[in-house]
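Ticket #4471: structure export looks truncated?
Reporter: QA, pipeline team
Priority: medium

Steps to reproduce: submit the single chain below to the structure queue and open the exported record.
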Amino acid sequence: QINYIIENDSTSSTYKYVLLKSVINASQKYDHLISIENSRANIPLGLIVEQWILDYMPFVFKNIAQQHNKTVLDKPITTIYNNIFMLLNLDTSVEWTYAYIQFTKALQNPNMSVELSKEFLKLSKKIADKIVKMPMRFTGKLDYEFFTPNQLNFGTVKLAKDEVYNSSFLVNSFEYFSISEQHYNIFRYLGQTLYGTSTIMSKWKQKTISLNADQEITRDIIDKLSSDTLEIRETSSIRKILTGEKECIWSGKELKDSNYDVDHVLPFSVWFNNDLWNMLPTDRVVNQKNKRDKIPTRKLIENRSDVIIKYWESYEKAMPLLFKSQVEVSLVGTGIQIDKMFDTAIESLCRKSDYLVFDRGHDSFSI
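Actual output as written to the record:
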């Protein structure tokens, strides 16, 4: 079924490729937000909406068509994107990679302005509507019985008073869609074969290039997106928080002054994640010679959990809104009481470690 959709199914746009790419990403990274009922996997639509907002941003910014009628998504969506670009002072003459980074920072900013949050909310609703009425609808027919969205009208989605637009809001507000448990397992355990070897990405690239033969920048955008993310490895935000006495998260060695590394617990090259919880201080030798791009074992995480939680508590104190949203979406789900959040997050981190080591075959790291 999946191969038929990718290889043989007729298409007039790139939507189905971006949808499959987004669902693979959600299946592999957000298992804690996904429930299995009656042999169906229920996945928050908000995860897909956020991925689409980011994936289509450079195409809108540089007017790279995704359909035969030369539009990217549709004119109302393009108008909202352009409103956001204007609010961010992003002139279309600048490099698209610079614009993408600024756009991403704005999307993840816990202190987003009211005006900007309104535009992102409008964009989210329009894109959610596009997803369920286009690629989900056409790959949800009897021929496939692939996607089943729970909600078709998103006009009622609103920000409550004092509510913040962020990833957690998207997960909570846009209901779920479902796929069969079989499809979910294929995506979770074999998704990198479909996506990493560029079966999906090559089709997206072929289609986009054919629609934009005169646009040299097209190949550059698709090639960078094929690495799964355009996000740049970043640690400066953590260094601003880490003050006073510090110890290596893995070895327990004392860390003096600024002579230490900030380690991505789940390596950035594997997980593409700059969330606060995923960045912890470590001895430079331990990080660069021993851990590198390896996955810490469950036993190591559990043995060092008290120190991990100590750092997490300092992050939560320094940036409460951002930290809470990131942990909810990436580790624990919503509705977890704050006194149980850290222990639940440790167990979730252990499960993701097990998944990457035992199911995906990445090298493990232990001391």
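Status: closed, not a bug. The export was complete when the record was re-opened. Leaving a note from the reviewer for reference: The two ends are 44 Å apart (CA to CA).
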